[in-house]
Amino acid sequence: MRILLVTVLLCIVHGIAFAQDKHHLLVITGGHGFEKVPFYNMMDSLGNFTYDHIEQPKANELIASPAIDKYDALVFYDMNDSITPSQKRAYLRLLQKGKAMVFLHHALVSYQQWDDFQRIIGGKYYEKATAVNGSLVKSTYQHDVVIPVKIENPTHPVTKGLADFEIYDEVYGNFLTQPTIRPLLSTTHPGSSKYIAWTNPFGHSEVLFIQLGHGPEAFRSPNYRKLLRQGIEWSIIRHR
Fold first, then answer.
1. Does residue 165 contact residue 147 with C-beta atoms inside 8 Å?
2. Going by C-beta distance under 8 Å and a sequence separation of 6 or more, which residues neighbour residue 79?
3. 24-59 pLDDT, tens per residue?
């Protein structure tokens, strides 16, 4: 009972501290077009965050510098394939230190030739047909579809208060996931792989990936905004 009470009190204290502090994010884009005004309107709506935004390849230069330490979390909305060996080491160092990282939508397609990346993010979208465990794998996408979303873990802080919902967005199909992922959302859409949001442990971090988020319809969705806000909050608290 005493341990439970202490745990509850700690959660309350963390919640109060989070509400009082403005947490500083780095939002990383580049490599894939998107509608900037509705995207940044969504980011502005999330509440208890300030953020800087930077495009690739400048983002990876910043990630490999000491200046990255001033950010509470990194939010990736990029689709980048250019990364140097020293920049790869910088990613791995940050994850070993327990840096909060949130990856969205087409970030899954990044770094096709960097094997560690799929172990970081928890999956891989195959742009080109590739032999994997004796089978040929090529991923797919489909714009402008209605996606039924099932909450796989309703008790997780990222999904708390969310019920199953539909969203007008883009699906990715035939991408592969790592056995280490902890699913948060799934879908039965025939053009999509099953799991569309998860957390994945790597180093001392637990990365969050959300496949949703292609365009303005998703950016305006109250469910998506709640999911993203709670995901960033959880990621920051988780990595303090």
1. no
2. 30, 31, 32, 106, 107, 109, 110
3. 999 999 999 999 999 999 999 998 899 999 999 999
The CA distance from 68 to 62, in Å, is 6
Q: Which amino acid type is present at position 206?
A: E
Per-residue pLDDT reduced to its tens digit, 98-134: 999 999 999 999 999 999 999 999 999 999 999 998 9
Report how far residue 224's alpha carbon sits from residue 117's, in angstroms, rounded to the nearest whole number.
Answer: 25
pTM for the whole structure = 0.91
Structural domains of the chain, ranges and CATH numbers in brackets: 2-238 (3.40.50.880)
If you count them, how many residues does the chain have?
A: 240
Which residue matches tokens 């999904």?
Answer: 159
User: For 47, what's the count of Cα atoms within 13 Å in the CB-facing half-sphere?
Assistant: 14
